[in-house]
Amino acid sequence: MSSTTPGSPTFDHTWIAAHIPHSGTMCLLDAVETWSDEAIRCVATSHLEPSNPLRSNGRLAAVCGIEYAAQAMAVHGAVLATQTQRPRAGFLASLRSVEMQVERLDILDGRLIVEAERISGDANNVLYSFTLRCGDRLVMTGRAAVILDASGLGSLGEAAKPNA
């Protein structure tokens, strides 16, 4: 995978929040560590925050890792988009082979590494595999099918961006 190099854009939390349809505390990722045409690796510490909007009764269930993975997939699409093309909105259509190795994310003591790899796809849909880790500890794996918005109405223009 490629790392960001001098002169290339920095894919930090601010950049991510501006390029995916999640803002404020719902933007869960801190930064992109590495990326290529096929894969992306992001990091997050929001699972440790008491203000995480996905918490219920003060706890963050492991299943919420799916949202972390989905945001990494969205960031991958945004990173790959050209300067003249806005990324198309994607909608999570199905999940397969999801395996969770922990019950809760909020009890993990380090940053999450969120990896997504594009397995296949075309102009209308994409299939990703994803992995979440905390240090060397495997947290979650699975596959996700994403359908891309064909209308263009789901692009990330301010009018379509929730929580803007």
Automatic annotation (TrEMBL):
Coiled coil: none annotated. It comes from the Bacteria. Gene3D superfamilies: Hotdog Thioesterase (3.10.129.10). SUPFAM superfamilies: Thioesterase/thiol ester dehydrase-isomerase. Pfam families: ApeP-like (PF22817). InterPro entries: ApeP-like_dehydratase, HotDog_dom_sf. This is Hydroxymyristoyl-ACP dehydratase.
